[in-house]
Amino acid sequence: MAQALVPFKDLSLAKSRLADVLTRAERRALAQAMVEDVLTVLSSHRHIARITLVSDDPGANMLAQKYGAECWTESALGCRGLNPLIRSASERLLGTGEEPLMVLHGDLPLLTGEDISVVVESQQALGGLIVGCDSKGIGTNLLAFNAASTPRFCFGLDSCAAHVASAKDAGMPVQVLQRSGIGLDVDEAPDLKYVMEQLPFNPASNTAQLLYNTELGARAALALTALLGNIESGSTDLSDDLTRGMAS
User: Fold this and answer.
1) Is 209 helix (H, G, I), strand (E, B) or coil?
2) Which residues are registered as beta bridge partners of 140?
């Protein structure tokens, strides 16, 4: 069995790079929907024994209760900044003896149970650090490790390479894992466009319920088409589909 740690900042401040597509309230709604999709996968997975949220968002406790998770505030951990917070929370969680620990972002709307299974099984086979990289192979969206392979947390610029280099310097086994459900975090307009194209394949997800066949989704699709200059024909198709859904 494994533990999962999901840090996320105040949702009202989330996804500022989507300001040209969504209003502040819509960005908060999107961020919450994506966090709930991640928590839905984790809470129903047979390999996950414990879920802990780290957040100062006013609604974090309610989210934790809804999904059977715990919630720790940043102030309770006695530090600030993503890397120190993850370090402090990881030390506490691994101190309970339950291994491995999985740290993952809350904006992975395409995450699946199979992704979690592969991560846990890969970590157990390797006995070291699993780095779940983003779709560009640059950022880190997930880490999995045990107490002996706890990394130096390097979230930030070029974090995938930094995590790998740090693990190798420490002499610990490390493996980079590339999976579509882990790789796509939604930060910029092209990310949102791709996610919206995938929503029909999982209409039950919280993100799909927010954006697929809704007025919000239709507005977002039109804004994305304008913002991205309608470069790809898929942009027009997506906009048409969502607009038809709004009218139905």
Assistant:
1) helix
2) 133
- In terms of pLDDT, which residue wins out, 244 or 72? 72
The encoded tokens of residue 4 equal 């999962």
Which residue, 120, 175, 129, is CA-closest to 149? 129
Amino acid 210 reads L
Block residue for tokens 């790809």: 232
DSSP 8-state symbol, 147: G
Q: Please check whether residue 3 is in contact with residue 47, taking contact to mean a CB–CB distance below 8 angstroms.
A: no
Q: Is 68 helix (H, G, I), strand (E, B) or coil?
A: coil
Verify cis geometry, omega within 30 degrees of 0, for the bond prior to 100. Answer: yes
Class of domain 2-183: alpha beta
Whether 55 contacts 10, CB under 8 Å: yes
**Mean pLDDT of the region 215-242:** 70
Q: In 10 A of CB 204, how many CB atoms?
A: 8
